[in-house]
């Protein structure tokens, strides 16, 4: 699960791991929608980034289930270095590159004083492998960030991170991956970027 929509002042801003954004009212509704949609799904464990926007998003599910999450610092969003605090359209003016190419940029020249693709992989891969190792034959919920979801998909599908630009990961979205090591195609994407309806918002 990607966290819900962040507060308006952070829209289209590179916050990454350096700005601990809070959710907007719509973002809080995203968390409630996720909990509703997963109400009939067995969940054996919850893992999460320590960042505020993630904590707020998973709160309804935790309250619904009475679960205690495992906080994993390495699931925090990537460090965007010198881009932090700038809007997407400002990056072009300030740094002379398109922010929309960020996945390619971090695999090549890199963002000044930010994490490279290899740095991201080096910290996310051990966390992902531990989650998989500790939860054989179990269903786990992982609440984190768009960038980290892309890293995990790249690792599971054995694809370059820059190819993950083809995958959209919306605020408050759910993606479901099944891992069956005994099968030839051990990793199956069962659902991608599904956003449960915001019933509470629509009724309000």
Describe the protein's topology.
Elements: H1 25-37, E1 45-48, H2 52-65, E2 70-71, H3 88-95, H4 102-107, H5 117-134, E3 140-143, H6 146-157, E4 174-179, E5 187-194, H7 199-203
Parallel strand pairs: 1-2, 1-3
Antiparallel strand pairs: 4-5
Helix pairs in contact: 1-2, 5-6
What does this structure look like?
This protein has a single domain, classed as Rossmann fold (3-Layer(aba) Sandwich). It is built from seven helices and five strands, in the order H-E-H-E-H-H-H-E-H-E-E-H. Strands 2-1-3 form a three-stranded parallel sheet, with helices on one face. Strands 4-5 form a two-stranded antiparallel sheet. Helix 1 runs parallel beside helix 2. Helix 2 links the parallel strand 1 and strand 2 (70-71). By secondary structure, the chain is an alpha/beta fold. The chain has helices at residues 25-37, 52-65, 88-95, 102-107, 117-134, 146-157, 199-203; strands spanning 45-48, 70-71, 140-143, 174-179, 187-194. The mean pLDDT is 95. The longest helix is centred in the middle third of the chain and has 18 residues, at 117-134.
């Amino acid at each position: 699960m990607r966290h819900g929509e962040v507060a308006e002042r952070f829209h289209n801003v590179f916050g990454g791991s350096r700005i601990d954004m809070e959710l907007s009212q719509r973002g809080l509704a995203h968390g409630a929608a996720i909990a509703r949609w997963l109400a009939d799904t067995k969940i054996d464990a919850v893992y999460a980034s320590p960042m505020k926007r993630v904590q707020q998003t998973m709160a309804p599910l935790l309250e619904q289930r009475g679960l205690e999450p495992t906080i994993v610092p390495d699931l925090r969003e990537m460090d965007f270095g010198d881009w932090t605090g700038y809007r997407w359209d400002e990056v072009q003016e300030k740094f002379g590159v398109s922010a929309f190419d960020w996945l390619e940029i971090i695999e090549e020249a890199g963002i000044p004083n930010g994490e490279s693709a290899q740095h991201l992989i080096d910290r996310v891969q051990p966390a992902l492998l531990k989650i998989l190792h500790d939860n054989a034959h179990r269903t786990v919920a992982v609440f984190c960030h768009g960038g980290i979801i892309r890293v995990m998909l790249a690792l599971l599908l054995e694809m370059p991170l820059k190819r993950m630009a083809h995958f959209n990961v919306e605020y408050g979205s759910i993606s479901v991956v099944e891992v069956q090591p005994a099968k030839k195609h051990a990793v199956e994407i069962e659902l991608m970027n599904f956003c449960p309806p915001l019933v509470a918002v629509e009724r309000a």
